[in-house]
Fold each of these.
Amino acid sequence: MTIFAEGNAMDNAENEISTEDLRAALTELGTYIDITEEDLTKIFAIALRHAKERLLKKIPVKDVMTRNVVAVESDLNLDAVAELLSKHRVSGLPVVDAGNHVIGIITEADILAMGCKERKHTFADVFKLLVGEAPPKCKHGSKVKAIMTSPAITIRPDEDTREAAQILDEKKIKRLPVVDDEGKLIGIISRADIVGMMGKK
């Protein structure tokens, strides 16, 4: 009899547990255990199923997101935005309208692009394109609405946290505003939030 335990770090050959392995493990214990190899195999299979169910359990975004979100409106001066980014030690902020609907996002990269000069693409820019990152584009203006990224990529609170992680990875972004059915800001989920959740498992 052979049992396979699936895992990311090891392939099936390394995860294969045979009856001989179980017998060797019992022998190594050096003490009497009133359990048959068949029972031990069943216990292992059941424990493995429970572990997989636990790891695959859906964790909604609302259980991981940060609820106290600092947001800005589109008419805010960029100096004020830079001050908020520094004060709260974040690299981006959601942009909302008067009704708290998310209409965009502004990041440190957007502000840094204010100081760049129009230029031809360098080898570094070409490399960034090859690995899925866009080279910085020069932006001009003194208000959030002039340089913010819009529309913002958002996620709903009942979505799976794994979905949020996939979006963050595919879009090469660090955070996702969480919105309700009306598109109003109710939280934000970041890479740090997801890493913190994984550390608590």
Amino acid sequence: MLQSAVRGFAGGGSKPKQIDPKCTDYDIIFVGGVNSTALAKFVQSNEFTKKKQLKMCVVSPQGKYMCPQLYFPVAHSHIGDLDLPSAAVNAQIENWSATEVGSKVTKIDPLTNSLDLSNGKKYTYKALVLAPGLDHSMDHIKGL
């Protein structure tokens, strides 16, 4: 039996057109860090999403995050003083979706399906996904 890759050799094959950098209206906006990036990547891999060419955007204050293989050893202090950001948000998201890294959402208006970012940009959406994740550091807890 012969197997062949769906997209061809080494990820080749046709890909959706790159998103217009001036786009401000999206089908789905993911807000958060690692969780939103992972979820956006999962949604991008869906065939329905590809066929409909849904416009998506990831808004994340983080530009980089740790590899999942390193997350728990660092979070639980098995690996001590290492700061191991290893994956860029931009590298995880296909270029037919947008990323806004280094920005935070300052206002969400559910009545108009819009949000404002800390960099002054305003976006509208059909669906909004909030995936803020958890902060495992204890630096903000007084006395520890």
Amino acid sequence: MHETFRLLLAGILLLAPLPVQTGLQVAPFSSIELPGGGHVVLQRAPTQRVTLVRGSLDYTRLAVADGGRLVIDKCFRKCPSGYRLELEILTPGAAGISLANGGSIQTRGSFPRQSELAVAVSHGGIIDVRSMVVDRVTASVDQGGRILTVPQASLLARVHQGGVITYWGNAQVRQTVEHGGVVSRGSADEISLPLSDIGPQLLHPIRKHGSGR
């Protein structure tokens, strides 16, 4: 009887549909906002494409707002317990990336050099744009969260009420830290670490700067 049950269960699992990735139609965009948390991977491509890897359009809504902002609303209505949102976005580049209330936005692969990038995290979460080659980066963390970046020329960094901005390279740094937080240069052996291996060590400054260099 137990053997029969196991065989029936195996048959059910084999017949169960696998998650299907869904390509989404959106208008052209120049920046990405994830205000309600979630997980997004950005990869370089000559044309833009958004794929829903995990989640449901019954709960998640995407819209391109004024100024070309792709706004991803994880739960425009109440999501079930344990709901997880994962998206893959292909794009030639992005002028701005923001995240709030947990989750992650991570770039993978090489992107063409761009002049400016604005990055912001609030109330937790991490943005990893180490694979983007950017001359001037403006980075802001408000009430918790982390940003990882490799500015080529300059970094304007602001942390308010906790959070961490870690950068690599020898860019000119101007920073403001209010009511706790860290702006620090990462070590050479950390720059290529996978995001999954980024641990608490990056919460502690290796070298701390004042208001300028």
